[in-house]
Amino acid sequence: MTTKPSKDLETFENPQSGRDYTINIDIPEFTCLCPKTGQPDFATIRIEYVPNKLCIELKALKLYMWAFRDEGAFHEAVTNEILDDLVKAIDPTFIRVQAEFNVRGGLYTTITVEHTQ
Amino acid sequence: MTTKPSKDLETFENPQSGRDYTINIDIPEFTCLCPKTGQPDFATIRIEYVPNKLCIELKALKLYMWAFRDEGAFHEAVTNEILDDLVKAIDPTFIRVQAEFNVRGGLYTTITVEHTQ
Amino acid sequence: MTTKPSKDLETFENPQSGRDYTINIDIPEFTCLCPKTGQPDFATIRIEYVPNKLCIELKALKLYMWAFRDEGAFHEAVTNEILDDLVKAIDPTFIRVQAEFNVRGGLYTTITVEHTQ
Amino acid sequence: MTTKPSKDLETFENPQSGRDYTINIDIPEFTCLCPKTGQPDFATIRIEYVPNKLCIELKALKLYMWAFRDEGAFHEAVTNEILDDLVKAIDPTFIRVQAEFNVRGGLYTTITVEHTQ
Amino acid sequence: MTTKPSKDLETFENPQSGRDYTINIDIPEFTCLCPKTGQPDFATIRIEYVPNKLCIELKALKLYMWAFRDEGAFHEAVTNEILDDLVKAIDPTFIRVQAEFNVRGGLYTTITVEHTQ
Amino acid sequence: MTTKPSKDLETFENPQSGRDYTINIDIPEFTCLCPKTGQPDFATIRIEYVPNKLCIELKALKLYMWAFRDEGAFHEAVTNEILDDLVKAIDPTFIRVQAEFNVRGGLYTTITVEHTQ
Amino acid sequence: MTTKPSKDLETFENPQSGRDYTINIDIPEFTCLCPKTGQPDFATIRIEYVPNKLCIELKALKLYMWAFRDEGAFHEAVTNEILDDLVKAIDPTFIRVQAEFNVRGGLYTTITVEHTQ
Amino acid sequence: MTTKPSKDLETFENPQSGRDYTINIDIPEFTCLCPKTGQPDFATIRIEYVPNKLCIELKALKLYMWAFRDEGAFHEAVTNEILDDLVKAIDPTFIRVQAEFNVRGGLYTTITVEHTQ
Amino acid sequence: MTTKPSKDLETFENPQSGRDYTINIDIPEFTCLCPKTGQPDFATIRIEYVPNKLCIELKALKLYMWAFRDEGAFHEAVTNEILDDLVKAIDPTFIRVQAEFNVRGGLYTTITVEHTQ
Amino acid sequence: MTTKPSKDLETFENPQSGRDYTINIDIPEFTCLCPKTGQPDFATIRIEYVPNKLCIELKALKLYMWAFRDEGAFHEAVTNEILDDLVKAIDPTFIRVQAEFNVRGGLYTTITVEHTQ
Fold first, then answer.
1. For residues D3 and D63, is the Cβ–Cβ distance under 8 A?
2. Alpha-carbon gap, residue E98 to E26, rounded angstroms
3. Which of I9, I21, I94 to mutate to probe the J interface, most J CBs <10 Å?
4. pLDDT of G50-93, one tens digit each?
5. What is the pLDDT of residue E18?
6. Count of alpha carbons within 13 Å of I15, Cβ hemisphere only?
7. Which of C64, E43, G71, I17 is most solvent-facing, going by the fewest CB within 10 Å?
């Protein structure tokens, strides 16, 4: 079973259209590259969303995160990019993306971005 | 003493009809099957409700959770199904059901569903 | 020094009548009997109240909790009963009683009851 | 299903006679009475043993602990008594009994007793 | 360097008069005497305040807490007394005093008092 | 990708034959049935071994654990059975199997079994 | 690579101008000198801000914190000074600076300052 | 019920003379005075001993600790003094006394003293 | 400052040749690829060694770990390979390498390898 | 009260010459400079020793640690230097010095050095 990194965010129909509810997904295995030095950065990505008509397929989400492995990405920009891609894919009622980056130079940085329909 | 899994949610009369109060029940031993692969999934189910005329009998609730052991169940669908069954059984003033699924493919998923009368 | 279990809730005058403030008391040593099986149940009782004219005397509160040791008591009913007894004794501005029962059959149950003047 | 407190320690045959192994049982719900004041004491009992020909049946062990509920018992004496009763019932290769008593007068007391065949 | 316990609460001018901000001070080393039995009581005192024109000098606050060491003090009364003394000394925009007393007779008691200008 | 529960423990050749080293595998998702009541039991299985010529393939180990899902199994017997099966499959220099069962009747039970070549 | 302590707070353009979001930076390695005794003080600085047109460059922020190493600084004053410098540099929509100082004389002090545009 | 601080260490006969066992007592409420500055010091005292013919009575031990409240005591000397007093009172098979003092000047100090018969 | 991943393990002379001592290095940011599926694996590498004539340079060690980022590597093999490379580079008196891999399929795997001169 | 950093390690006579015992001192506020980059390094220093004829005076030890604030110091060398200075000052029966350095480049380094008479 070999799968490939891909930014295609597969979706499925929300099984409960008559009621708002919340989905939390924590992903402790995010890694990309520092655009300045080329060195690896590591982060935990936390997603919380209220689905509208569509939900994110979990295996596709995993491959999506994998696709950042060889990309250069600034902390602030990549967190906003993940939010934008998720909004485009599932147009949720509400979504928050939080990226907790590993310590660099003694500083612990976390970026939190939200979108409401 | 052999008892059987069953989706019948036994109830008893709320001993305090004159006042709203809250009941929390945490169930760390929920397991069902993944509908795609047939493999076991594990979750902790957390229920919080404000009873109206009826309360859920705890032993029946345990047998109810047991009844999912051999069923295929998507994360989002099964959490909504548990909420629907509890609402039908006790018609509570308020209820929240939360399912924290064990990690799969490096992703930790939690579904939270609420109902208010 | 032998003292006896007793449901008499001794009180003393609130030393600060000009200002609302909050008193929290946690009691990890509550035990009663299951009315169905006769077996012991254990709980932590947490009380939070804003006193009005009277405060609960702590040693009397301890003896009050002891008085449940040989009584059969349903989770939901006993938590409401403790609240009712405290309201009757000190008529507080606000009070919350929370009973966190030890795990039974894999289920962790907590009952939370509030009263406002 | 009503069962009664009893100091009869039911046993069953060790399913593995050809090999030494270890069984740990933690019991956070032990309570007895202080022989001086008559007031309730609470403890966590921890048992570790290497079975010989017999193992302790768990439900009987629970009823055994229950049987101390209305007995006066000094910390040091009751821990040795539990060890003696277990040794008499199953004659284990090794056994340790540890009683961690709840704080009294600002002092946290733990008694640890061992027996080797 | 010998200093003495003293209820004189030395102050200094708030270095930032144009903006509200918050100061938290936790003091885990408070001890006084039980007025009934004469035995020592221990507590952690937590102070949160928004300064107005004056701030509390920290070394003086330490000596102030020391001054309770040989005084009899009821839980509810002493917490209100500390608040009153601080209000008199610095007239803050907001202040909360919280006293978490060590366990006595299996009961954990915390008193929380607030004052707003 | 549908796989099936199976007690076949697939192995692979130890990549390092010239040196002893240790492999730890923790499996928090073990479930079987109580042989007396038919009700589900849950445990965390912890394996530590020093490989000899063979190592356990991880996916096969997961399917092996799955194979207990519908079997009745006493705590003491099943822990010894898992050890026996692993010894038969890989004949390790050393192995320890530990089963931490979820609380039942207020008792927390852990079984620890070791085998040395 | 030798860099120097400097109070110049380098900035970069906010990569996401169309949406408010939050940046948290925790810095556990802050040290300055006590203005009274000349002895070292240690603190953890926590910054939370909603960027407007500019973001703080992280390496410059590290050098900025380093610049306090040989300066005398009162707790309340230095926390306000850091806030003022950050507001001047990036004019954020919102910012909070929190300084948790290490224990001195048994007292744990934390200063929290906020600014809203 | 007023009791007084006293260095008299009351004892009682070891209820189990035929077997060695261990008693642990943790006392988080020890306070004395610094002999240099006169200011209060705070410590947690941990005692572990194997009784011989006598055990320490717990209430007397509490009053013994209270007796240090107004005494000047160096860290190293007071820990040895407590050990000496306990050895004189109960002549134990083994005893260890450990004093964990609260932080002073950024230093956390613990003294550990043992005695074997 | 751009540096590159490299398996060259730079060293420096042990500053203390007359005495054995221990160096621990924990590296929570190790990632490689699964040789079967090509998907990323993540681990924490823990190194403990007693230096002989040489020590490992820390920045070189970081680049060494980075060099596994695009390599396929079995758990057991890669842990032994890291140990072998470190032994070849610094010939230490003692060394232990421990790799704690992130959960896969509900299994948590840790490999521990040691070498003594 | 202004004191100065100083490498003079003041001592006092061991109050208990007839018995070996252990003194632990943890110092979370150690900082020095990186000899390569000039940037600050931070560490927690942990000292454990069995005194012989002399003990280390705590206030002098604090000033000793302060004396490294403006010195360049390699991790391995500075830990050995602290041990050497302590051995020269008090000639202890046993001493261990442990330096846990803050994370740098994703690596957490700890150095442990011991000396026995």
1. yes
2. 9
3. I21
4. 999 999 999 999 999 999 999 999 999 999 999 999 999 999 99
5. 86
6. 16
7. I17
CATH topology of domain E11-116: GTP Cyclohydrolase I, domain 2 (3.30.1130)
Domain at H15-116: CATH architecture:
2-Layer Sandwich (3.30)
pLDDT at A28 over 90: yes
pLDDT tens per residue, range C63-93: 999 999 999 999 999 999 999 999 999 999 9
User: Could you tell me which of H9, H5, H6 has the C-alpha nearest to residue H86?
Assistant: H9
Q: Rounded CA gap, D17 and C49, in Å?
A: 58
Per-residue confidence band for H10, with pLDDT thresholds at 50, 70 and 90:
very high
Q: Which pair of structure tokens corresponds to residue E96? A: 């909360």
> Are I38 and A66 within 8 A, CB to CB?
no
What is the average pLDDT across A34-45? 95
CATH topology of domain I11-28+40-116: GTP Cyclohydrolase I, domain 2 (3.30.1130)
Q: Report CA-CA distances (Å) from C87 to B17, C80, D40, I64, J21.
A: 17, 11, 26, 68, 56
Give the other-Cβ count within 10 Å of J117's Cβ: 10
Residue with tokens 């931490």: F100
Contact F109, D25 (CB under 8 A): yes
Instruction: Locate D66 and state its tokens.
Output: 């229950």
Nearest to G105 among E15, E55, E58 (CB): E58
Domain residue ranges in chain H: 15-116
8 Å CB contact between E23 and G110: yes
> Would you call E55 a catalytic residue per the annotation?
no
* Residue J76 and residue J96 in contact, taking contact as beta carbons nearer than 8 Å: no
Name the residue of chain A whose CA is nearest to G45's CA. A107
Catalytic positions of F, written as ranges: 34, 41
Contacts of J29 in chain H (CB under 8 A): 106
Q: pLDDT per residue over E44-71, tens digit each? A: 999 999 999 999 999 999 999 999 999 9
What's the per-residue H, E or C state across chain B?
CCCCCCCCCCEEECCCCCCCEEEEEEEEEEEEECCCCCCEEEEEEEEEEECCCEEECHHHHHHHHHCCCCCECCHHHHHHHHHHHHHHHHCCCEEEEEEEECCECCEEEEEEEEEEC
Q: What is the 3-state secondary structure (H, E, C) of A25-77?
A: EEEEEEEEECCCCCCEEEEEEEEEEECCCEEECHHHHHHHHHCCCCCECCHHH
Q: Write out the residues of chain H at the interface with chain G, using a CB-CB cutoff of 8 A.
A: 42, 102-103, 106
Q: Find, among A72, A71, A80, the residue nearest to A111 by Cα.
A: A80
Segment D13-47, tens digit of pLDDT: 999 978 999 999 999 999 999 999 999 999 999 99
Contact J97, J46 (CB under 8 A): yes
The span from the CA of J96 to the CA of J90, in Å, is: 13
Q: Are C107 and B62 in contact (CB under 8 A)?
A: yes
Separation CA I60–CA I25 (nearest Å): 13
Amino acid at B5: P
Helix H segments across F32-74? 58-66
Q: Which CATH number fits domain C38-116: 1.10.3720.10, 3.40.190.10, 3.40.50.80, 3.30.1130.10?
A: 3.30.1130.10
The CATH code of domain F20-116 reads: 3.30.1130.10
| Residues of D designated as active site | 34, 41
For A2-23, the pLDDT digits (tens) are 689 999 999 999 998 789 999 9
Question: Interface pTM (ipTM) of the complex?
Answer: 0.94
CB contact under 8 A, D112 and H22: yes
Residues 6+ apart with CB under 8 A from J114: I21, J83, J94, J95, J96, J97
- pLDDT for the residue A17: 77
